[in-house]
Amino acid sequence: MTDNVKNRPILIIDDEKHAILSLKLTLKTAFSIKNIVGCEDVFKADDFLKENEPLLVLLDIGMPGITGDKFLNVIKERYPAVPVIMVTAEVELETAIGCMKSGAFDYISKPVNKERLLSSVRKAIDFRTKELEVEALRSTISNPLSEVPEEFSHIVTSDPKMLSNFRYLQSVTKSNAPILISGETGTGKELFAEGIHNVFGAKTPFVCCNVAGLDDQLFSDTLFGHVKGAFTGANGDRKGLVESANGGVLFLDEIGDLSTASQIKLLRLLQEQEYTPLGADKPKKCNVKIILATHINLKEKMNGGEFRSDLFYRLNTHTVHLPPLRERHNDLQLLLIHFIESACKNFSKPQAECDPAVVALLKSYSFPGNVRELKAMVDDVVARHEKGKITQDQFVDKIPTAKNSNATNLPSCETQDWSDSLKYWETLPTFDIAKNLLVREAMRRSSQNQSVAAKLIGISRQALGQWIRRHNEEEK
User: Fold this and answer.
1) DSSP line for 288-308
2) Which of 46, 99, 184, 208 could form a disulfide with 104 if both were Cys (CB 3.0 to 4.6 A apart)?
3) Phi, psi of 274 (to 5 degrees)
4) Is the pLDDT of residue 344 over 90?
5) Structure confidence at residue 145 (pLDDT)
């Protein structure tokens, strides 16, 4: 239990003093929580709530003055995320069900069963803990004092490697040498280029070009422009992207796909800081900061004779590599919150809360399309979402099993060498015990969602359900 959870009080509202003392003793013994406050009337409770946000509330329905079901509305209006467990007599059962519809977390009948109480409180604490983690992450996104420099504030991350890249780029941006950004598709290379442009001077031009698929003439015409009569159809002068970016930043994406002839022209641009428009007699000076990006391993391509070594070493002066999303698990929750809020705004929908358990599901997936794939996934979920919280079930069909995943660069269950995990075991578990351990771990990682757990271990939802029922019957 984190300090943020431990420091928040549990509030018990009951007009019977002995009931408060009994609940306090039970909760202190079970959860080692010392900060438990008891109020014998709703007016004292109301004063307390004006100054304090509790971890959870235990509220007796049969209170004099303002009844518990009515005071529930006061609590939910003031602190909508705080779980409220209603305590009810048998005759108030119908009222308790109505409270559930009004936002109560659970209800417990009197006389209070200790195991039933502890189970409900444990679930409420787990729920609130996850909610508080989400709130902390959301504040991290908008916190101007976070570690993300202002120039890169449009990139959502708290990952140490990403933060290290920010600091490095801040220090080398003023260098005359080019900057090379490498990383898999969808990791945010263009966003990094925009951040470098912000450091360089946000008011200067920022020109982007994806050079993949450009033949040599089109590459030259696109970057360097042409003069009238340079080729058939050249009816006038045309300035290229280098001239358009004059005094600012030129971002060239997918440079690993350039032809050998285009590589030579790019090398000259970088070395001589000049270029010649098609059909022109005199070169022009280049006054731009050049940023290049690739998802291809240029060193491997150079070793294979497909990329010029002189260009490779010229590009290798200032380099950053963006980690794939599967190596940024701590960023998943940040990005999920950010994309949900953005998508709700784009689709003109009320802001939707997301069950924190969704992150457990997303962590089981390798995201071959990285952040771009996550954004597309969230956009589709929000577009289909109608009301209530966004849950794991809305993402399940979008997460392939390891067997069907396209992430060939990540070991799957079939290809991973499990021997290192097993060879240190002094004795091996039986097959039944191993299955039991595997199912329990899958259920833990999926926050008890059977559909998700089944996907994690590569079996059908029905097969998992049958196994759990059979196992529960054997334990009785």
Assistant:
1) -EEEEEESS-HHHHHHTTSS-
2) 99
3) -150, 165
4) yes
5) 39
What tokens appear for 65 in the block?
Answer: 């003055």
Residues contacting residue 17 through CB under 8 Å, at least 6 positions apart: 38, 40
Residue 420: pLDDT band (50, 70, 90) is low
Asked if 106 contacts 86 with a C-beta cutoff of 8 angstroms, the reply is yes
Of the candidates 448, 198, 458, the residue with the CA atom closest to the CA atom of residue 468: 448
What is the predicted pLDDT for the residue at 129? 79
CB distance 285 to 331 below 8 Å: no
d(CA 87, CA 89): 7
Per-residue pLDDT at 330:
85
Q: Name the average pLDDT for the chain.
A: 85
Tokens representing 419 are 């021997």
Token pair belonging to 147: 């570690």
Structural domains present in the chain: 3-142 (3.40.50.2300), 153-323 (3.40.50.300), 326-400 (1.10.8.60), 420-476 (1.10.10)
| pLDDT for 419 beyond 80 | no
Taking residues 153-157, what's their average pLDDT?
A: 93
Number of CB atoms found within 10 A of residue 282's CB: 7
CB 121 within 8 A of CB 164: no
CA distance 420 to 399: 27
Strands (E), 405-467: none
Q: Answer with the residue of higher pLDDT: 462 or 420.
A: 462
179-208 tens-digit pLDDT: 999 999 999 999 999 999 999 988 999 999
Tell me if the pTM is above 0.70: no
Q: Are 439 and 457 in contact (CB under 8 A)?
A: yes
Q: What is the DSSP letter of 63?
A: -
> Within a 10 A sphere around the Cβ of 24, how many other Cβ atoms?
18
Amino acid at 413: C
Output the CA–CA distances (angstroms, integers) from residue 139 to 136, 161, 362, in the order listed.
5, 21, 21
Task: Convert 148-185 to b/e letters by CB count within 10 Å (16 or more is b).
Answer: bbebbeebbbbbeebbebbeebeeebeeeebbbbbbbe
Answer whether 285's CB lies under 8 Å from 274's CB.
yes
**For the purposes of burial, counting CB atoms within 10 Å of the CB of 69, is it exposed (0-12), middle (13-18) or buried (19 or more)?**
buried
Q: Give the C-alpha separation, 476 to 466, whole Å.
A: 16
Q: How far apart are CA 381 and CA 383, in angstroms?
A: 5
Residues 20-24 have a mean pLDDT of: 92
- The more confident residue out of 102 and 36 is 36
Q: What is the bridge-based pairing of β-strands 284-285 and 274-275?
A: antiparallel
